[in-house]
Amino acid sequence: MKTLGILGGMSWESTISYYKLLNEGVREKLGGLHSCRMVMHSVDFAPFAEQMGKSDWESVIAGLIKGAKSVEAGGADALIIATNTMHKAAPEVQAVVDIPLLHMADAIAGGAGKVGAS
After folding, report:
1. Residue 79: CB atoms within 10 Å
2. What is residue 98's three-state secondary structure?
């Protein structure tokens, strides 16, 4: 099983949802006591919210990159950002790590295609 890197804490409430759903999905697929192998980097959201309020996306991106590098160094084989808004910085984050960033828009598009939606 591969190890998933989660960049979370934006907010911690959304990170809980991702954590729960990922583990439920692995348990459903593999059964028993299986759970998702993951490395998580949870940020303090307050500075990020302040930076976004000032439209300081350069600082937001720098913080996301630091977290992404942390999960990569921790052994993650792929990365997810456990929040919607921060996907705005996905291209910048992907450019500095050697593991794939699994973008939520791709997952949503794939799921929509499976049910015939576009």
Report:
1. 25
2. coil
Q: Which two tokens stand for residue 41?
A: 């980097």
Q: Which H/E stretch holds residue 51?
A: helix 45-53
Domain that includes residue 92, residue range: 4-114
What pLDDT was estimated at residue 117? 40
Confidence of residue 108 (pLDDT cuts 50, 70, 90): very low
SS3 8: strand
- Cβ atoms of 70 and 81 closer than 8 Å: no
Task: Give 1's DSSP letter.
Answer: -
Nearest to 38 by CA among 62, 70, 64: 70
Q: Could you give the angle at the alpha carbon of 59 between the alpha carbons of 56 and 60, nearest 5°?
A: 85
SS3 105: helix
CATH code for the domain in which residue 53 is found: 3.40.50.1860
Per the structure, how many domains does the chain have?
A: 1
